[in-house]
Amino acid sequence: VAQDEFGIIERYFARPGASRDVLVGIGDDAAVLDVAGPIAVAVDTLVENVHFPSGLPAEAVGYRVLAVNLSDMAAMGAEPRWCTLALTLPQPDETWLEGFAAGLFSLAERHNVALVGGDLTRGPLTASLQIIGTIDREAILRRGGGHVGDDVYVTGTLGDSAAGLALLEEGMVGEGSTHVALQERFLWPEPRVTAGRALARLASAAIDVSDGLIADLGHLCAASGCGAAIDTERLPLSAELLSLFPPNVAEAYALGGGDDYELCFTAAPAQAQTVEAVLAGVGCPARKIGRLVAGTGVQVRRDGEPVVPVSTGYRHF
Amino acid sequence: VAQDEFGIIERYFARPGASRDVLVGIGDDAAVLDVAGPIAVAVDTLVENVHFPSGLPAEAVGYRVLAVNLSDMAAMGAEPRWCTLALTLPQPDETWLEGFAAGLFSLAERHNVALVGGDLTRGPLTASLQIIGTIDREAILRRGGGHVGDDVYVTGTLGDSAAGLALLEEGMVGEGSTHVALQERFLWPEPRVTAGRALARLASAAIDVSDGLIADLGHLCAASGCGAAIDTERLPLSAELLSLFPPNVAEAYALGGGDDYELCFTAAPAQAQTVEAVLAGVGCPARKIGRLVAGTGVQVRRDGEPVVPVSTGYRHF
Fold first, then answer.
1. d(CA A154, CA A286)
2. What pLDDT is recorded for position B187?
3. Which residues on adjacent β-strands are paired with residue A297?
4. Neighbouring-strand partners of residue A86
5. Are A186 and A161 in contact (CB under 8 A)?
6. Closest listed residue to residue A79, CA positions, set A154, A3, A117, A131
7. What residues contact B277, with CB distance under 8 A and at least 6 apart?
8. Is B76 at the interface with chain A, CB within 8 A?
9. Res A10: pLDDT
10. What secondary structure letter does DSSP report for B113?
11. I want to staple A260 with a disulfide (CB 3.0 to 4.6 A). Which of A44, A140, A209, B21 is the partner?
């Protein structure tokens, strides 16, 4: 049965639950949210064949468009609460819509985020999600708060997602558990929302790693008015990444590969023990990979000697 | 010079001014807005060749993506304050970007709306804007508040925009001032923000006319649990529309043509004089075109007799 916009929204996207402080939800000219303090707002768009390969399961697209936005909330120390969705589709494919909604809501429910509105249009497959979170005025985690001498940290492991995407694109689906583990890192990234909130009063600056470590740490440095020096031997690399790729390739994925959605943050050296304790408390691994230094840009060192990385990250244009 | 996302944002979209209550603006992982009460949130997407013809001037695209969202704020009685922009472009064309930004900011500055964030991606031309406004908890103008017996009103005139688009698509640019006036109605729609806020405590229900009068009044009726009866002889038609088209075509544009961005609202008959006075006070013409009635759907009458309209509005799929 051909469905119009309103039927599709009603069927796939109007879900009860997770309706915290929603005065008006889906189905009016705008949603109305009961807000009592500062809000954090971000938007991220996924275009087929640009941000994800054509044929990616609909579940993974729906999951991803929320995950990348949750990651932005994490990097600000905000608590994600509500979202709106602008979804453009070539045609209303029911199986695809069902999968997309399932992926989106599986993550939304886990983070108690309510979908409160959106726009469904016909055109080339594009999903754009706007996230709104609450944030403490005194604990806004910015890119620009870093100081020379601060330690540079990253959460989790780096490079798995880019390696997993490469494996997916080579069609190596299901060839052994190591392959699968890396592909899963690309397909189902886990935004560091709890860690971001825990770091909000502790870190001096933060950014999420979406374009690649060097690119994103570079943005943090530019905003903080300094440079950074990081050591390749300190990069957190997963056992899976190291078992499938030679060390130099694994390192290149970690430095330049995107889509990790880990947090890169800085903190004063005096805070090192507290950072460790707080992140351990929320079950988030993190590793110190270098320092903020005077100057500009990100210097990469191997055994103390400067090296030139193969890739410096995703360029949007 | 090829520019990356960050350069383009810096050059075209990071503007000072209009930064009311913006704690963190463009350039971080999220914007942070200082909000103290309920907010209204909407999103609307424009896809090239679906919502606007290919080759529409960039200024008109930038203006339009904000105008359609301001219209949603108007229909809720909200005060638009901030917006984020998800812009997808085939390539970073400087002339196009300059025009798009000029059109967007010309309207944003007039309504004191700040662009606080966004995402710039490569792909088929699509502009999606998310608007955030403040709204009075006690004066939320919903679609579902109408009662049987309420008068049905529309602001301004109807059908001009659809007629103007038809003229544009026939390539009749610049052929006389009447043509130009109708084309301008399509190109530069004037969202009824001030009227919407003035009506917030007065109207029982409201919706903006974006898909066509019959379609949108139909949504208001469905949400209000009743029907409507409107009289074709009361439709507000512009002199320009009537001078270029025979009466039956003008009427069809007014009933089924989209993109008017006027408000359709309802109010108790006892409020008629107040409605008139309040709208006169903000310089917004409005006309009573019928009543909410028991039942479902929109009945159209000509000289008291039911007629079947030619078009019942834009279908999204």
1. 5
2. 94
3. A227
4. A119, A128
5. yes
6. A131
7. none
8. yes
9. 76
10. P
11. A209
Contact call for A4 and B315, based on CB within 8 A: yes
Which of the residues in chain A have pLDDT under 50?
1-2, 18, 316-317
- Residue A145 is given by DSSP the state G
Q: What is the pLDDT of residue B2?
A: 46
Q: Which of residues 150-209 of B touch A (CB under 8 A)?
A: 206-208
pTM, full prediction = 0.93
Chain A residue with CA closest to B121: the answer is A316
- Per 3-state DSSP, chain B is made up of helix, strand and coil in percentages (nearest 5) of 40, 25, 35
| Pairs across A and B, CB distance < 8 A | 235
pLDDT at A42: 97
The minimal CB distance from B33 to the residues A39, A82, A131 is found for A39
CA-based nearest residue to B208, from B137, B150, B141: B141
The DSSP secondary structure of A17-58, one letter per residue, reads S--TTEEE-TTSSSEEE---S-EEEEEEEEEBTTTB-TT--H
| B window 205-234, beta carbon within 8 A of A | 206-208, 219, 223
Residues of chain A with C-beta less than 8 angstroms from the C-beta of B4: 315-317
Query: B163: distance to nearest CA of chain A, Å?
Result: 23
> Taking the mean position of all CA atoms in its chain, how far away is CA B231?
23
Residues forming a β-bridge with B131: B42, B83
- Return the SS3 of A308: coil
What does DSSP say about strands A151-155 and A262-267: parallel, antiparallel, or unpaired?
antiparallel
Nearest to B29 among A24, A86, A143 (CB): A143
CA dist A22 and A28 (Å) reads: 12
Q: What is the pLDDT of residue A7?
A: 78
pLDDT at B236: 98
Burial of A305 (0-12, 13-18, 19+ CB in 10 A): exposed
Contact predicate B80/B131, CB 8 Å: yes
Residuewise pLDDT in 10s, chain B (317 residues): 446 776 777 788 887 654 679 999 999 999 999 999 999 999 999 999 998 888 899 999 999 999 999 999 999 999 999 999 999 999 988 999 999 999 999 999 999 999 999 999 999 999 999 999 999 999 999 999 999 999 999 999 999 999 999 998 887 555 678 889 999 999 999 999 999 999 999 999 999 999 999 999 999 999 999 999 999 999 999 999 999 999 999 999 999 998 999 999 999 999 999 999 999 999 999 999 999 999 999 999 999 899 887 665 555 44
> How confident is the model at residue A2, as a pLDDT?
46
Q: How many CB atoms lie within 10 A of CB A3?
A: 16
Other Cβ atoms closer than 10 A to A288 = 18
Which residue in the set B5, B84, B143 is minimally distant from A316, CB to CB? B5
CA angle at A67 for the pair A138 and B40, rounded to the nearest 5°? 60
pLDDT (0 to 100) of residue B190 = 96
**Distant-in-sequence contacts of A49-55, Cβ < 8 A, 24+ apart:** A49/B123, A50/B121, A50/B122, A50/B123, A51/B121, A53/A165, A53/A168, A53/A169
Please tell me the total number of residues recorded for chain A in this structure: 317
Amino acid at B52: F
Sign of torsion over alpha carbons A303, A304, A308, A314: positive
Give the pLDDT of residue B90: 93
Report the C-alpha gap between A158 and A162 in whole angstroms: 9
Strands B205-209, B262-267: parallel, antiparallel or unpaired by DSSP? antiparallel
